[in-house]
Structure formats: C-alpha cells, structure tokens
Sequence to fold (260 residues):
Amino acid sequence: MKGPMKNVSLSLFAFLLFTGAYSLVNAQTSLGILVGPSVPNLSGGSNEISQDYVSRLALHFGVTLERDLGGRFSIQPGIIFDQQGGQRNGLQPIPSTTSPSGGYDYADFNNASILNYVEVPVLLRYKFGGSQSWYQVNAGPYFGYLLSASQKTSGTSLVYVDKNLTPLTIPVPPDYKQTVQAPPQSFDATTDVTDSIHRINAGIQGGVSIDLPLSEAQTLSLEVHGLYGLTNIQRYAVDGTNHTGNLLVSLGYSFVFPGI
Fold:
C-alpha cells in the first residue's frame, strides 16, 4: 500500500475506533456490516468527452456504527468501499490525432469509467414503526477518497471525422497525394486515469430502510440510498466536468450492545 493511501486508511480506521469508543461509554450502540449492488453514473459534462454517460452495475460494502441519540433519532458514521463511475457505449468522441487544431474524431466502442472510493458517510437517522419491524429515513454528508480510477474500453471500429460517419482517410506512399480509408482500430485497453481525477470527493446522501429484529440484540436490514457528489471530479479542464452519483441497495446485519 502506498504512503498516502496508507495514511488515509489509518486515519479512517482511527476515526471509526474513536467514534466507537465514545459511543460505548455514552449510549446504546449498534455495529453493522452491509453489502449490496449499486448503480453509479456520471452526471454533468461540459464538453463531448465528459457527456452522455449512463449507469452501470457495481458493488459496495462496509461497516457502520449507529449511536442512539435518544427518542427516535440516531447518528450513524461508517466506512464504505463504493464503486462509482459510469459507461458510454456506441459512437463517441476520441481525441483527434490527425487534426492540427485538435478536436475530436469518433468511433463505435464500449467505454466504462471505474472509480473506486472509500467513503465515510455520517447519517442522521429517524426511526418509526412497531415491534415487528422498524422503518428509518436518513440523510447526511459523505466524504470520499479515491483509491483508483481506470477507463476500460473494448471493441473494434472504424474512425470517423464527424458524427455523420465520414471515414477518416490517410495518405498512402510513395507520393502521399492519394488517400485511403483508415483501417479499423482496436479499442481493447484498460487505462489508469487515477492522476486525472481529484482524490477527494464530497457529497450528500439520503435513504430509507426497513429493519427486521432477529432478537433483542440482532437486526437484519434492507436499505436503499441515493448519493450525489458535489465535487467536480475532473482534475483537468480538457476533460470537462463530472459529478458522481449512485443508487445503493444494501443488505445489512447489526448487533446492539448497551453503553457502559
């Protein structure tokens, strides 16, 4: 593990331990684990490179610590591994390598943006319901640290100079006065783009859950959360602007232990 990553991970771990210790001596506390699918997407887009992403299927998992605040309220920090990003398939822009003025060419291929974050949500929760099941609504901020980012592309396509599918042509020897259509290009590649993305992300999230008690100390839960990142994740202006977003469906298990 690299130095900065190790420092952040240790800081987050220390934060959770501190919160847990404080909760234990002040109020009833629940320690939980959760896992489930997620449906991330990238919104925004100030140029063609950053536009037209749609959702893809991903994964999240983590641990939470819920502290009773009295009444029906509680606060719940956590540490979550969350896959963000999006995908864009079909005809899409690529940086031009032939135009002296830059701009874009176009090709037909599959393109997935895969962003792996460790996130620390802090949620205020309100509980209502009866003895057989409880319902909760929750909302709060979250803070994320980018672990890695990659662009995974696949497919083979002709390269076009515009959206009207005008093929790219290249000059041929010996005099280079005649041109022929450029051959199809393979786009099978996985590119590390971590250095092109801001490491820190922050946003808001909210959701609902149903809690099913298994015993006085154990609870099974099903939660649905929506997240929206408030930070432009793109480091460089040439890449446009994007904000992360995610729909999480979590299956959780928690156990309760009383304050000391």
Summary: The first strand starts at residue 29 and ends at 44. Residues 3-24 form the longest helix (22 residues).
